[in-house]
Amino acid sequence: MLNGKYILIENCPGMGDLIMCTPAFKRLKELYPDCVLSVVSYAHNLDIIAGLPYIDHVYGIAKGKFLGHFRPALHFRKQDYVIFTSWQPQLARMAQLLRVPHRAGVCKEKYRGTGLFHQELPMHDFRDTKYRADFITEQISLALGVDLSNDGVCEVAQPDEESRRNIEQLLSVKGVDLGKKYIVIAPFGKTEKNIPLSLIKEAVEFLEDKCDIYFTDSKIEECLQIFNRYSNIHNLCGRTSLSEMMVLFQNAQFVITTNSAPLHIACALKKETVCLFTRGSYYTWAPKKYCRVVTLAKECAPCDSDTEKKCLHQECVNGITFDMLKQHIEKIMHN
């Protein structure tokens, strides 16, 4: 049915969201190995999936560059199907103008029934507790008229050898013992709450004589005060590429993170990960394998950003204790 067809699928919300698409992409290629599958996302997301064997082409939306948002439209003419898993009005209009034979997508209410899409897809609601990878699979299945049911286990492209060499060189320059065991802490998230500094300090003190600790993923100004106090801490925040960060994850004993992209990357690399879930729903976002959830599972969660800003107590994060992390850390280290 779809063999020989050109299928382009957009997914732009974030890196974790894009990783959650991979089970559907993989299943599509298993069923229809001769289809040509292209993926559109923000350009900085694409390294995470470029190189996966079941994805033929990736096209990036270059935010902030002249006509950067429209560049993927150059590839619309040859497509048989164009599918938008998120609301992308400019690109959707281009697909309509270029008369793509089968157009499906998430559509805001005022555009419903305007002919923008042949098939209108359900829009994700942050209150929904359905596992995100399953929701995306259902969207793509609807758009193509096929059943893409899968195991929901996500994948990422493997880091390249150059990234491995760069990490070795970076750590060697810093005088790090490359043979010593280590863990990675990625404490910051764009949409989720950061891991509280108090928990980070307790984790560092608990692990001080057990292994090295690498901090990565983002700026870490609020943690600078603890770096000089512990000989086993190495600050790599902002000093690694995405692929280099993946090398660190692969060789770590385990990872500690908040509910953000590093969680999905680490679990997709089959690395045990202890994750703090605060205002987000772990039902929706916790990977099916390798993820150890730390959460208070508050009745008010999940909440949107406006509700979070108005919350006086922030109990979903402030109520988490180090003992909740410690039990998972001890189990991983024991194993």
Topology:
Layout: E1 6-10, H1 15-19, H2 22-31, E2 36-42, E3 57-61, E4 81-84, H3 89-97, E5 102-106, E6 119-121, H4 132-144, H5 161-173, E7 182-186, H6 197-207, E8 212-215, H7 224-227, E9 233-235, H8 242-251, E10 255-258, H9 261-268, E11 273-276, H10 282-285, E12 291-294, H11 305-310, H12 315-318, H13 322-334
Parallel strand pairs: 1-2, 1-4, 2-3, 4-5, 5-6, 7-8, 7-10, 8-9, 10-11, 11-12
Helix pairs in contact: 5-8
Characterization of the model:
Helix 5 crosses helix 8. The chain has 2 domains: 6-144, Glycogen Phosphorylase B (Rossmann fold, 3-Layer(aba) Sandwich); 163-334, Rossmann fold (3-Layer(aba) Sandwich), CATH 3.40.50. The longest helix is centred in the middle third of the chain and has 13 residues, at 132-144. It contains 13 helices and 12 strands. It has a 6-stranded parallel beta sheet with strand order 3-2-1-4-5-6, with helices on both faces. Strands 9-8-7-10-11-12 form a 6-stranded parallel beta sheet, with helices on both faces. It has 335 residues and is an alpha/beta fold. The protein is globular. Helix 7 links the parallel strand 8 and strand 9 (233-235).
Largest sheet: 6 strands, parallel
- Looking at how many chains there are and whether they match, the oligomeric state comes to single chain
Mean pLDDT: 89
Structural class: alpha/beta
| Residues in helix, % | 25-40%
The helix tally amounts to 13
Large-scale geometry: globular
CATH third-level topology of the largest domain: Rossmann fold
Percent of residues in β-strands: 15-25%
CATH architecture of the largest domain: 3-Layer(aba) Sandwich
- Report the count of strand segments: 12
